[in-house]
Amino acid sequence: MSEKYKRLISKLLEGDIRSAARLITLVENDIQIAEKIISQVYKHTGNAYILGITGAPGSGKSTFISTLVKKFIEQEKKIGIICVDPTSPLTGGALLGDRIRMKQHFSMGNVFIRSMANRGQLGGLARATEDTIKILDAFGCDIIIVETVGVGQSEVDIFKSAHTVLVLLVPGMGDDIQVIKAGIMEITDIFIVNKMDLPGADRKVSEIVQMLELNMNYKFDNNNLNEDFAKINRWTPEIIKTNSKTGENFENLLEVIAKHKEFLLETGVISNYLKSRIKSETLKILKYKLSQKIEKLIDDSHAIEELIEEVKERSMDPYSMANKIVQMLGIEENF
Amino acid sequence: MSEKYKRLISKLLEGDIRSAARLITLVENDIQIAEKIISQVYKHTGNAYILGITGAPGSGKSTFISTLVKKFIEQEKKIGIICVDPTSPLTGGALLGDRIRMKQHFSMGNVFIRSMANRGQLGGLARATEDTIKILDAFGCDIIIVETVGVGQSEVDIFKSAHTVLVLLVPGMGDDIQVIKAGIMEITDIFIVNKMDLPGADRKVSEIVQMLELNMNYKFDNNNLNEDFAKINRWTPEIIKTNSKTGENFENLLEVIAKHKEFLLETGVISNYLKSRIKSETLKILKYKLSQKIEKLIDDSHAIEELIEEVKERSMDPYSMANKIVQMLGIEENF
Predict the structure, then answer these.
(1) Residue range B111-157, pLDDT digits in tens
(2) What's the pTM value of the predicted model, to 2 decimals?
(3) Domains of chain A, with CATH numbers?
């Protein structure tokens, strides 16, 4: 552990925003460095409440988050926002270069926004997001919002860290439920029908209710907990209509988020949740470490070039090649 | 290798569609069985030309593919379609239950559609897609279309198998380029401005041109080939406006696809491409195998329960836990 990291971490713990930003860049870019930093930071975490927010493009996510953040600021909360959605205009850093919308919060000094767009591989992205959450937690954020684009398995992976998952839908967008459905729906705690002033808001609510009824049988909980436990202590997803421009129903939303937090604490779900989160996180780190090693091996090894030639000529198939590599590594006997 | 699989495979090679469907289900559901089947099927592959087609929801992908498929049928091609997009109405099996749109092709007996929606994990999905491609290849498909939703790293992974990658954009959808941008753009061979009858088609073409110019410096090729080789033998992405309803410009599109195929063959890019595809595929299999083993280990082991408790109390961090597991497995010394 170099002196540089130690200094950054002690400044992070004092609430220095530049050190937070620097440490996040460090953990994002290199898992070896991430390891050194997180092993020091970890004991200072566990205070932040993590919200996962997702929704298809067009659902008004950024205005929604802006409004929500204003409400949290009124409660004197310190807030961290992690944008995993590459199209997010919240920082837009990576793609749109427009930091204007959230600027008023920046200057208030209690909102920290970070875009994780385009950071390497998926496994790497989920891992980097987890580590960024930890740094913002140690930085003293009361609430950490993780924003994703909400289509596909990657989000499910990223949302394993969230205490409360919010999914935004809008009236009249016929296929948004379909888009969101694949995997995200099962882990949603609160459905938001945003842009409630548009026609069809109530129909959208009915669609969600219908979908939830259809899926009651296999919906358990956030984190693959013990099924019996989860069945008894099951959170019934709530549906809230909001207008992010006027702020309508946001007080109600804050209450429901608080209610979900209470549910997690009172039922003890939060302890199981933490356990399953640790499992999934360790798994992510393990997979990522092993993947990196294997990739390096495949790129470097002469023996593997020969195997590739055989597969190219179709005298060997890719599965047999994978098995040969497992043998070469002596991995088999250790499992 | 059981007799059942052998019989299915020999019927597959004779072009029996039910055997194809059955074998795909088998490889999808179980990597152990996939291994047995693919090791027999692999030597019969290598004839199909693989098209990757993607586009944001609303870009008219299904009508586009329907029209494209009709053109291929006119050329007496046998076509396989793999829908990785969970929202795809092409089969819609998984989510919408509507197989109507493509039915006319079904009945002609030379189009086979398969939805891969919601099949397990991402790594598993990419792996299952690769294996499905191989079965359709051995089944005798001349052309295999892989359809995805086009946002995120998962598609990049899936498209590593495609010879030619088509991305659909539409006039007036402001943010579709932004959505597609993250990773997909770099591997696109042909940009389609679909719904060319809508206002703004030419502006969309300019936007694509602009984006391509911006990215010229880091755009190399489909498959992380040797950079120098790729620089010399670089395909300049083409842009084609289409109207999927009238079929306008589809002849032109077919010519450009043929031109890209010729490019791959004449430059020898296709050989490098195959090599890099084998690498990435073996890597996928290896990662998937190791992941499964690690997941099983983490779920079963008592020793790991104890580590989790330590992390829960924050007397250990997840990275240290991952390292302990690597040690327990004796993996370290083999790398």
Answers:
(1) 888 887 555 444 577 788 889 999 999 999 999 999 887 655 566 77
(2) 0.66
(3) 45-269 (3.40.50.300), 286-334 (no CATH)
- To the nearest whole Å, the CA of B26 is away from the closest chain A CA by 15
* Residues from chain A contacting residue B311 (CB–CB below 8 Å): 278, 282
Diameter of chain B measured on Cα atoms: 68
With CB atoms and an 8 Å threshold, state whether B287 touches A275.
no
Which helix (H) or strand (E) segment is B145 a member of? strand B143-148
State pLDDT tens for residues A22-50.
Answer: 999 899 888 888 999 999 999 999 999 99
Set of chain B residues whose Cβ sits within 8 Å of the Cβ of A181: 86, 95
Q: Do residues A51 and A179 lie in contact, with contact meaning Cβ atoms separated by under 8 Å?
A: no
Cα end-to-end span (Å), chain A: 32
- Residue A147 φ/ψ, nearest 5 degrees: -105, 125
Cα–Cα dist B49/B146, whole Å: 11
List the single residue in B39, B151, B283 with the smallest CB-CB distance to A295.
B283
ipTM: 0.75
Dist CA B136 CA B168 (whole Å): 24
DSSP state of B243: B
Helix (H) / strand (E) containing B98: none
Contacts of B247 (CB under 8 A, 6+ apart): B67, B70, B71
| Number of H-type helices and E-type strands within chain A | 14, 7
Task: Tell me the C-alpha distance between B195 and B211, whole Å.
Answer: 20
| Amino acid identity for residue B86 in this structure | P
How many angstroms separate the CA atoms of B116 and B128, rounded? 8
> Which residue in this structure is represented by tokens 């837009």?
A92
**Residues of chain B by 3-state class (helix, strand, coil), percent to 5:** 55, 10, 30
| Interchain pair A43, B96: CB under 8 A | no
Q: Which amino acid is at A255?
A: E
> Over the Cα atoms of chain A, what is R_g?
22
